[in-house]
């Protein structure tokens, strides 16, 4: 929708990605479209297996070629089509204009190289810098991500750093070449809450300073609320709802989004020993998924005689900039109830 | 007031730090649990909350004597567990069971569900083959699983289902105390709610007492009558759940609660501004 103005930095258009194995093809990403403006933050939220990380890896073209394949759609980044870009061009883009950080900062860093060497490596790969100049930049970057005593810590190895510090180093490496887009896949899931808050603040500050767009992959609605401008909710390989962040939390439309928010235990203003609204069952297999609404078997509002058990609901714009894929969005249920009275 | 089911007092646990070569003197130790005391009444849930390295899991293991406490006392129904020999401890173990965080690594992949759930019954020689089989079916039903799946293997189940299997196994010997060590942190939100509700239902129907250990403050609130907050091996605050959450006294508890992301964008923005102004004033969170 934003692409009409020619403004979007990232455009994902009907992206389809499948894993293939002995049991068949898993439709991990099944027709996903969204766009992200320069400097903006889009959060993709969903549970394990919903396709959120697979979407991120597809955009970065970081899929294992032996068992994964982009089978349809396109990803455009700043006018270039990533889905058809050659390897050399892609490698120039990754780490410079396009960067990614992962959940586990322990396994993303090379344990045999000093922190300094790993930052310098990225800088010299993409920028025309001498060794001394690159090292000077590396210190600046560590200072930017608030590593105390940065010059001395340059010579340390990853195991000398705590989990939160390691994720800061990953962020330093990711932003080393001032990327225009950072994809962060569950960047704080492995961290304690107090550390999480500071890492999220850091990401937010870096974004504001460098006009960097952020594609944030998370399962945590709290993190979404903290970081996102726009939210995409994924379920079973598809987008089921998409809206600006306030709109999504104020007026969730999809029964899945509503149920997800209701299933969250609350830390405040709540009863002690509260009973949570659990969602019964679990998501369908994405090997030959049914051609009907994929949430229908778990949906409190689906019934046999309505459309959703017979065909797949379209993703439709229920209000400006608010998309939902359901035959039973909240506002329409309320209207029906109103009319019945 | 009824007498407590579990009394932990002045519990300490030291772990040796590897001695450096040529370093003289007594071996260095790291005190993972430092002077921890609390009680749990029958039928109550005590939430033990803290960040990684706070000593909460070590406390749980020290209660069960899975790690030997360095000092202090653990009394279960009046019996001092730290003084019992392994053979004296055995019958006590029937009364205290534990479920673990990771439903993937805590179930033996080579055993069927029936074998996993029946194992504690066999170890403690409860009943015969036939009665054990009936009991396994009962237990699977209690935790909301299809008893006809008893002959399947753990890999055939999702994380939530596996956690149900772990719970069925823990309940097999009809324990009085169930220690739940991060029981839902590996599970998705929608599945997590199912398991938390199941634990609450089981407590109501079986009269269980829980020690609920977790890092997620919201989850602990949903489960606990009283809360103990640990940091660096020590208890920093304890009290009724309402008190601790709505009116935290200790700075650490306040910082911990303030850092929890809540599903409210307006609140989160206000929180960030607040943290930023604290940082600008030179303090650290």
Describe the structure.
Chain A has 341 residues and is α/β, with parallel strands linked by helices. Chain A has helices spanning 52-60, 87-93, 105-108, 115-126, 131-144, 150-153, 163-175, 193-210, 221-227, 245-250, 255-262, 330-340, and strands at residues 10-21, 24-36, 41-45, 68-77, 80-81, 98-101, 181-185, 213-218, 230-235, 238-244, 316-319, 322-324. In chain A, helix 4 packs across helix 5 and helix 7 (163-175) runs parallel beside helix 8 (193-210). Chain B is α/β, with parallel strands linked by helices and 285 residues long. In chain B, a hairpin with a 2-residue loop joins strand 9 and strand 10 (234-240). The longest helix of chain B is centred in the C-terminal third of the chain and has 18 residues, at 189-206. Classes of the chains: A alpha/beta (341), B alpha/beta (285). At the A-B interface, helix 8, helix 9, helix 10 and helix 11 of A face helix 6, helix 7, helix 8, helix 9 and helix 10 of B.
């Amino acid at each position: 929708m934003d692409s009409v103005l020619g403004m979007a930095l990232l455009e994902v258009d009907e992206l389809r990605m499948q894993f293939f194995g002995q049991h068949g093809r898993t439709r991990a990403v099944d027709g996903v479209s969204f766009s992200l403006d320069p400097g903006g933050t889009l959060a993709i939220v969903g549970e394990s297996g919903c396709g959120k990380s697979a979407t991120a890896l597809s955009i970065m073209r970081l899929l294992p070629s032996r068992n994964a394949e982009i089978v349809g759609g396109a990803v455009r980044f700043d006018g270039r089509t990533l889905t058809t870009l050659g390897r050399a061009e892609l490698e120039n883009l990754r780490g410079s204009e396009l960067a990614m950080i992962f959940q586990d900062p322990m396994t993303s860093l090379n344990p045999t190289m000093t922190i300094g060497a790993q930052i310098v490596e990225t800088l010299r790969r993409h920028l025309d810098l001498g060794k001394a100049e690159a090292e000077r930049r590396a210190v600046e970057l560590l200072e930017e991500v608030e590593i105390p005593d940065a010059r001395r810590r340059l010579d340390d190895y990853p195991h000398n750093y705590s989990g939160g510090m390691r994720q800061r180093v990953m962020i330093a490496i990711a932003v080393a070449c001032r990327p225009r887009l950072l994809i962060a896949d569950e960047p704080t899931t492995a961290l304690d809450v107090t550390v999480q808050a500071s890492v999220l603040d850091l990401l937010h500050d870096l974004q504001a300073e460098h006009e960097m767009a952020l594609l944030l992959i998370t399962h945590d609605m709290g993190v979404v609320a903290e970081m996102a401008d726009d939210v995409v909710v994924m379920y079973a390989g598809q987008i089921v709802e998409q809206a600006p962040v306030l709109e999504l939390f104020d007026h969730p439309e999809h029964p899945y989004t509503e149920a997800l928010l209701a299933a969250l235990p609350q830390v405040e203003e709540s009863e002690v020993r509260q009973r949570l609204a659990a969602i019964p069952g679990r998501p369908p297999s994405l090997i030959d998924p049914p051609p009907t609404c994929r949430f229908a078997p778990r949906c409190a509002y689906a019934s046999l005689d309505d459309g959703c058990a017979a065909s797949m609901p379209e993703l439709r714009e229920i209000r400006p900039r608010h998309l939902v894929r359901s035959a039973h969005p909240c506002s329409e249920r309320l209207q029906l109830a109103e009319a019945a009275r | 007031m009824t007498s407590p089911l579990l009394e932990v007092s002045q519990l300490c646990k030291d772990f040796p730090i590897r001695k450096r070569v040529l370093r003289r003197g007594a071996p260095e130790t790291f005190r993972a649990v430092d002077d921890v005391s609390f009680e749990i009444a029958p039928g109550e849930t005590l939430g033990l909350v803290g960040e990684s390295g706070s000593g909460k899991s070590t406390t749980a293991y020290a209660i069960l004597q899975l790690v030997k406490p360095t000092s202090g006392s653990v009394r279960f129904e009046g019996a001092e567990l730290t003084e019992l020999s392994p053979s004296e401890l055995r019958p006590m173990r029937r009364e205290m069971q534990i479920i673990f965080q990771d439903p993937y690594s805590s179930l033996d992949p080579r055993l069927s569900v029936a074998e996993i759930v029946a194992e504690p019954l066999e170890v403690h020689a409860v009943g015969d083959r036939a009665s054990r089989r009936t009991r396994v079916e009962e237990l699977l039903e209690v935790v909301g699983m299809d008893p006809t799946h008893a002959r399947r293997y753990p890999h055939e189940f999702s994380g939530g289902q596996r956690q149900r299997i772990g719970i069925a196994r823990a309940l097999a010997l009809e324990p009085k105390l169930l220690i739940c060590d991060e029981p839902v942190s590996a599970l998705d939100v929608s599945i997590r709610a199912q398991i938390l509700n199941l634990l609450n239902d089981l407590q109501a129907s079986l009269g269980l007492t829980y020690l609920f250990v977790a890092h997620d403050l919201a989850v602990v609130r949903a489960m606990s009558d009283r809360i103990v907050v640990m940091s660096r091996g020590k208890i920093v605050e304890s009290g009724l759940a309402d008190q601790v959450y709505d009116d935290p006294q200790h700075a650490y508890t306040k910082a911990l609660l303030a850092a929890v992301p809540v599903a409210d964008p307006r609140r989160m923005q206000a929180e960030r501004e607040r943290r930023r102004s604290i940082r600008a004033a030179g303090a650290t969170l």
